[in-house]
Amino acid sequence: MKSALNARLLSAAELVRQDATFADIGTDHAYLPLFLLDAGRISYAYCCDINEGPLDSARRNAEERGRADKLSFILTDGATVLAGRGITDYAICGMGGELIADIIDRAPHLRDGGVNLILQPMSRQEKLRTYLASSGFKIITESYSLDAGKYYVCMQTVFDGKGREISDLEAIVGSPDSRFVGDECRRAYLQGKLRSLSRAHAGKLEAGTDTAAEAELIDSLKAYLGKRE
Asked: How far, in Å, CA of 24 to CA of 49, rounded?
């Protein structure tokens, strides 16, 4: 029986390179590595999770599909223990942007030349983009998807050592040097960000808080979206 993926995880799978040795951080049921094995995209995968329960589910799924010999299951809270295993592609999906940044920060080997990071933050996407830029990571591709009524972004990232500061607008919309996949979903995603910023701005106005910076960012995002009409 071949595995299938929802749209959110499929956008991550499409950023994994052919013949990669793969690690899935926060693997849950190992849906992503099993799909990649079935597709012939990867040769071996390390399934990592902070909880034993998801790893047990991953093991069962691998055994049911006859793939247990192509997977290792590791109980860990990040990627640090994976150093020196020859892993070329890492997926860190299904958690907040600040936690993803912390996982990367604690694993220096993710800065090795040629390592491909596939990152899918569920929240705090702006914090993650800011961290990546300041820490010398370049976002090559941003892939947007719609899954169960929600919009998601998945980032393909490599370390180039060129740390830089980015604007608040770039932290939301992404680098102009990135390749964007899924234009309609990206526009809807950014419109959602605009609505969220506008609600927060209105709340601060009611509370009598200075909102000049927020207002400027909202105007910049509106202008950016207007240019894309």
From this structure: 8
Tokens of residue 74, six digits: 């590791």
Residue 2 has pLDDT above 80, yes or no: no
Query: Tokens 């940044």 sit at which residue?
Result: 101
Model confidence at 228, pLDDT cuts 50, 70, 90, reads: low
Question: Cα(132)–Cα(105) distance, rounded to whole angstroms?
Answer: 10
3-state secondary structure of 27: coil
The torsion of the CA quartet 215, 219, 222, 227, rounded to 10 degrees, works out to -160
CA dist 122 and 201 (Å) reads: 22
- The whole-number pLDDT of residue 108 equals 97
| Nearest Cα to Cα of residue 128 among 110, 94, 88, 155 | 155
- In angstroms, the Cα distances linking 17 to 154, 165, 183 are 15, 29, 22
Q: What residues have CB less than 8 Å from 48, skipping those under 6 apart?
A: 23, 24, 25, 26, 27, 73, 74, 75, 76, 78, 79, 82
pLDDT in tens, 16-25: 999 999 999 9
pLDDT in tens, 158-184: 999 999 999 999 999 999 999 999 999
Q: Does this model's pTM top 0.70?
A: yes
Neighbours of 14 (CB within 10 A): 16
What SS3 state is found at 184?
A: helix
